[in-house]
Amino acid sequence: MERTLTLVQHRTPESVARRLLQASAAHSFDPSVDVDWGAPRQEDAWYLQPERLSLYGTALWDRMDERQRVELSRREIGSHVGMSTWFELCTIRMFADYLESRDIRDPRTHYALTEIGDETRHLIMFGRLLAEMGAPVYGPPAHLRRLFSVFSPTFGDLTSFALILVLEEVLIRVQRETARDERVQPLIRRICRIHVTEEVRHVSFARAELHDAVRRTSRARLAYHRELTGFGAWMAMRSLLHRSVYDGLVPDPAAARREAARNPHYRETLLWSAEKLVGFLTEAGMITRAEHHWWRRAGLMR
Ligand SMILES: [Fe+2]
Ligand SMILES: [Fe+2]
User: Fold this and answer.
1) What domain of life does the UniProt record list for this protein's source (predicted)?
2) CB–CB of 68/251 below 8 Å?
3) 199 CA distance to ligand 1 centroid (A)?
4) Which numbered ligand comes closest to the C-alpha of 175?
5) Domain containing residue 175
6) Largest CB tally within 10 Å, which of 32, 150, 185, 276?
7) Nearest to 117 by CA among 205, 2, 30
8) Distance between CA atoms of 182 and 253, rounded to whole angstroms?
9) Residue 6 included in any domain
10) pLDDT by residue (tens digit) across 2-56?
11) How many domains does the chain have?
12) How far apart are alpha carbons 261 and 275 in whole angstroms?
């Protein structure tokens, strides 16, 4: 244990960036050649593992037939991917701000540029996946776009990296499981595997940068960023599942939304997806008791 702590302390943002640059050079993917886009779709295969769906285990789920359940899985991954494309565009914008004050000779700068490159390829990969699946394209609600425009100029490195971590860690946890699940369409499993491999590096970078930013920030500023991060996490999580995913699929979409909101299985899925994230942010000083209400509202904390 002591040895692990010493190793962590000696890991500087520069050394993390150097390691990630090497890993990126060795294991990066080009979705135009590393994904078999022409492979036939499997009849009746899931698009997302059923146990992670918002209605799984509810009375409504019991009344749905297999075709409706599979269709729900197609729409829910469509919503995750649609929202991810917006989140990744936001990430690119936050990275552009981060880069403005950095030295072009610094390995941290080089890794940030590499990560923008990864996200650019992910956006193309997600766009092709949505086109291939024929799923509706669910974008972010207008109020979320407006809130991002108003608040993002005050994010700084702290809130930027904390919010990047929220989305990356939650989605990685689900996608890692999706990639392994043989009931899921092979195309989706392949894309999840590629995405997780590159996103794990993004998480390492964001964690190192966040530690560094916390160290440089005064207590008063830190309190503001904790509040902003908690609020941002709540707004992002409540948009992950688009409110129209049930439209045309079940007789009463509003009742389905209510049933999903109080579904204990889905609540457990959200808590499970954020276990490591909430532990890390608490340990890093980005979540204290004062912000627990945001994280509970986001469904990421008990
Ligand atoms: Fe990504
Ligand atoms: Fe990422």
Assistant:
1) Bacteria
2) no
3) 6
4) 1
5) 43-297
6) 185
7) 30
8) 30
9) no
10) 444 444 556 899 999 999 999 999 999 999 999 999 988 898 899 999 999 999 9
11) 1
12) 19
Cβ atoms 200, 299 nearer than 8 A: no
Is residue 281 in some structural domain? yes
CA 294 – ligand 1 centroid, Å: 25
Question: Which residues lie closer than 8 Å to 61 by C-beta, 6 or more apart?
Answer: 53, 55, 69
Under a CB-based contact definition with an 8 Å cutoff, are residues 115 and 205 in contact? yes
pLDDT digits (tens, 9 = 90+) for 237-277: 999 999 999 999 999 999 999 999 999 999 999 999 999 99
The per-residue pLDDT for 39 is: 87
Distance, CA 119 to ligand 2 centroid (Å)?
A: 6
The neighbourhood of ligand 2, an ion, using CB within 5 A, equals 199, 202
Q: Would you call 32 exposed, middle or buried from its count of C-beta atoms within 10 A (0-12, 13-18, 19+)?
A: exposed
Distance (Å) from CA 198 to ligand 1 centroid = 7
Please tell me the number of the ligand nearest to residue 119's CA. 1
Residue 135 has pLDDT above 90, yes or no: no
Contacts of 136 (CB under 8 A, 6+ apart): 75, 78, 244
CA 281 to chain centre: 15
Nearest-angstrom CA–CA distance, 254 and 136:
19
* CATH code of 95's domain: 1.10.620.20
In a domain, 192, yes or no: yes
CA of 40 to the centre of ligand 2 (A): 28
Domain annotation covers residue 248: yes
Instruction: Looking at the CA of 126, name the nearest ligand.
Output: 1
Expressed in angstroms and rounded, the spacing between residue 65 Cα and the centre of ligand 2 is 36
Distance from residue 107's CA to the centre of ligand 2 (Å): 18
